[in-house]
């Protein structure tokens, strides 16, 4: 069994209207590459450690880390990132998991 790929995204939205367009484009690209939202902007509560609570947290599961990276580098997600320009500050990483 190969490892799953998880995108972990921390986002601070600065332009909610423009961010809505990004969300729509990103969701379509995620679906196209077989991704599934596990967390999509719900409440995040710090239980331990010096974390900074993210304004918006998103976790997406892909069948492999390679698929997560293909999604990120895809023309579809590049269009979403262009739509997001100036609408949010974002940190994103891919992690292997089970």
In brief:
Pfam families: DUF1330. With 98 residues, this protein is α+β, with helices and mostly antiparallel strands. The protein contains three helices and four strands, in the order βαββααβ.
Give a description of the structure:
The protein has 98 residues and is of the alpha+beta class. It has a single domain, classed as Alpha-Beta Plaits (2-Layer Sandwich), CATH 3.30.70.100. 37% of the residues lie in helices and 33% in strands. The protein has three helices and four strands; from the N terminus they run E-H-E-E-H-H-E. A four-stranded antiparallel sheet has the order 2-3-1-4, with helices on one face. The longest helix has 17 residues. The radius of gyration is 14 Å and the shape is flat. The N and C termini lie close together (9 Å). The model has no long low-confidence stretch (mean pLDDT 96). This is DUF1330 domain-containing protein.
Features:
Alpha-Beta Plaits, flat, alpha+beta, single chain
């Amino acid at each position: 069994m190969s490892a799953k790929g998880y995108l972990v995204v921390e986002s601070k939205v600065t332009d909610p209207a423009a961010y809505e367009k990004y969300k729509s484009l990103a969701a379509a690209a995620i679906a196209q590459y077989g991704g599934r939202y596990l967390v999509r902007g719900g409440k995040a509560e710090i239980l331990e450690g010096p974390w900074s609570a993210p304004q918006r947290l998103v976790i997406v599961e892909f069948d492999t880390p390679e698929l997560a990276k293909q999604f990120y580098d895809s023309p579809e997600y590049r269009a979403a990132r262009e739509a997001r320009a100036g609408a949010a500050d974002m940190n994103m990483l891919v992690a292997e998991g089970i």
